[in-house]
Design goal:
The complex is a heterodimer of chains A (about 110) and B (about 425). Chain A is α+β, with helices and mostly antiparallel strands. Chain A is about 15% helix and about 30% strand. Chain A has two helices and six strands. Chain A has a four-stranded antiparallel β-sheet with strand order 3-4-5-6, with helices on one face. Chain A has a two-stranded antiparallel ribbon with strand order 1-2. Chain B has eleven helices and 18 strands. In chain B, strands 1, 2, 8, 9, 10, 11, 17 and 18 form an eight-stranded mixed β-sheet that branches. Chain B has an eight-stranded mixed β-sheet with strand order 5-6-4-13-14-15-12-16. A two-stranded antiparallel sheet of chain B has the order 3-7. The interface of A and B includes residues 38, 39 and 75 of A. Chain B: It is found in: Cytoplasm.
């Protein structure tokens, strides 16, 4: 079973306690943006087979959104971090690089 | 190709079954083809078959990473229905259902199509209204469905509990001509027919790159070397994102795991397919007697072909509530498949930003029922370079233009 640590309350929460929220760090385009920009925000997804940055909510805990780095091919969780981040923290990226040398890095 | 018939069985019976041919050849790839299809599942093989049958294009290779029909074609719950709300969906799924009716004769291969009927239970007042609306829409689309009351549901499915404590059965959307078919046989039948037309089905051959020149596809790199092609069709379901990445574009698709399971075999007890979308579970009985059960998807990106245990628990809880007699049944096998979900839960049969490269994906949790219709439409797109009437609405551009085919509301979760 998938277990993620909530970065706010520190609880090791299993997936029945969490609500998944798909890809993280999407650029949210607003009024006046082009159809292409809206498409990239709302529909186009990286959907990688490997390292994935994604949103989760501690639904049956503190209720807050947070972000996680996870391997979609092995279900290994690399780490979690607060939702108030515009890019993955450098130490987490370094940790993933160490475990997945072939990974191209966060793009 | 030797035709299968009662005479062939009699002939072989007299000579110890020593004269059966292999159903399809396993050739080494040629240097180039007129068309390459990546993915030898149902949709890919159907595309190849109709390219040959409808358009006379037979210099075709179907390339498969694993073994033929080993992906979602061998992992689904084999349900065939076409009771969709939106016109483009109803058109392509009804085309597929009607092709299933004659497929065994067409392919000279018994796909065991069994039009036993499909009932989608209405268990809330919203669902009653939704299915009444769908039944009216189907009448206008020429798809034969009817809304039936709870007493009729009980008559068709004696083992059902229509007075459940949480969600009593209020009625149902019944499609008498829906049903099931043998999923492996669909892939095998198409493969045999394609091989007979001279097409090459190349298994254990993974595509590692897509080569292009001047914005047009010229070939693919594979684990068996480079293979040139004039046209490329990507029909790889769960791994569409990876192949699209090789071809240099992004898709409005996310891969998630969908689970299914079967029980131990029991005596015949249910001769229709029942889908309960509110409590979320669906069930039919296979010819072997196993209860075939469809579960739910996990809500996170996943390529592992296995899903979370608590989803199985949810599905079984829902089905025990609906069919109390299954509460003591043992479950024999459970498995997962990687489904490609689009933003509006409808498929893509589309041109791509790369010239002469076409994609067929996004069937999500409901691809098996669409196989012949999808292959028919994809073959037309690949042969002519432009989509025909069945495929036109399913282009990638609909996500840019906001022209969604929104079936997620109409079809519920079990899509």
């Amino acid at each position: 079973m998938l277990t993620l640590q909530c970065p706010y309350c520190g609880v090791q929460a299993d997936e029945t306690e969490l609500a998944p929220g798909y890809e993280a760090h999407l650029k949210r385009y607003g009024p006046g943006s082009s159809p292409e920009e809206f498409e990239s925000y709302m529909f186009a997804r990286k959907n990688p087979k490997g390292v994935h940055f994604e949103r989760w909510r501690h639904a049956y805990g503190c209720g807050k959104w947070f972000l996680a780095a996870r391997d979609t091919n092995t279900l290994e969780v690399f780490g979690t971090y607060p939702a108030q981040s515009s890019a993955p923290p450098a130490d987490l990226v370094a940790k993933i690089k160490l475990k997945r040398p072939e990974w191209e890095g966060y793009k | 190709m030797r035709r299968y018939s009662v005479f062939a069985i009699a002939r072989e019976a007299l000579r110890y079954h020593s004269g059966w041919d292999r159903a399809w050849r396993s050739p080494t790839p040629k240097a180039s083809y007129d068309a390459i299809i990546i993915g030898a599942g149902g949709h890919g093989l159907a595309t190849a078959y109709y390219l040959g049958k409808n358009y006379g294009i037979t210099n075709v290779a179907v390339i498969e990473k694993g073994w033929l029909g080993g992906g979602n074609t061998g992992r689904n719950t084999t349900i065939i229905r076409s009771n969709y709300l939106q016109d483009p969906s109803a058109a392509i799924y009804e085309k597929a259902r009607s092709l299933y009716e004659t497929m065994s004769q067409d392919l000279n291969y018994n796909i065991m199509f069994s039009p036993r009927g499909v009932i989608m239970l209405a268990q809330t007042h919203h669902e009653v209204r939704g299915y009444l609306r769908t039944a009216h829409a189907n009448a206008l689309q020429g798809v034969e469905t009817q809304y039936i009351n709870a007493a009729r549901v009980k008559e068709l499915v004696p083992i059902i509990n229509i007075d459940g404590p949480r969600y009593p059965v209020l009625g149902g959307l019944y499609q008498p001509r829906g049903g099931t078919a043998r999923h492996d046989a669909v892939a095998w039948g198409y493969a045999r027919a394609c091989s007979d037309m001279g097409m090459d089905i190349i298994q254990q051959c993974e595509v590692t790159g897509v080569r292009s020149e001047g914005g047009r596809v010229v070939g693919v790199d594979t684990t068996k070397g480079y293979i040139g092609t004039k046209k490329l069709g990507i029909v790889v379901a769960g791994h569409s994102g990876q192949v699209a990445d090789m071809a240099g574009f992004r898709l409005p698709v996310e891969a998630v795991a969908l689970q299914a399971l079967v029980s131990e075999p029991i005596k015949p007890c249910m001769d229709v397919v029942v889908m309960a979308n509110t409590v979320h579970g669906y069930m039919s009985q296979s010819d072997k007697g196993e209860m075939v059960i469809g579960g739910g998807t996990d809500g996170f990106n996943n390529y592992t072909q296995r899903g979370s245990f608590h989803h199985i628990e949810e599905t079984l809880r829902a089905l025990v509530e609906t069919f109390p007699m299954i509460s003591r049944l043992k479950m024999l096998r459970q498995w997962g498949g990687i489904v490609d979900m689009t933003g509006d839960r409808s498929p893509l049969i589309s041109k791509t930003p790369l010239g002469n490269c076409f994609i067929n994906c996004g069937w999500g949790t409901g691809g098996f029922k669409a196989i012949p219709g999808s292959g028919w439409a994809m073959a037309e797109l690949m042969a002519k370079g432009e989509p025909g009437p069945l495929a036109a609405a399913f282009s990638i551009d609909r996500f840019k233009e906001g022209r969604f085919i929104d079936e997620s509301v109409a079809a519920g979760v079990a899509h």
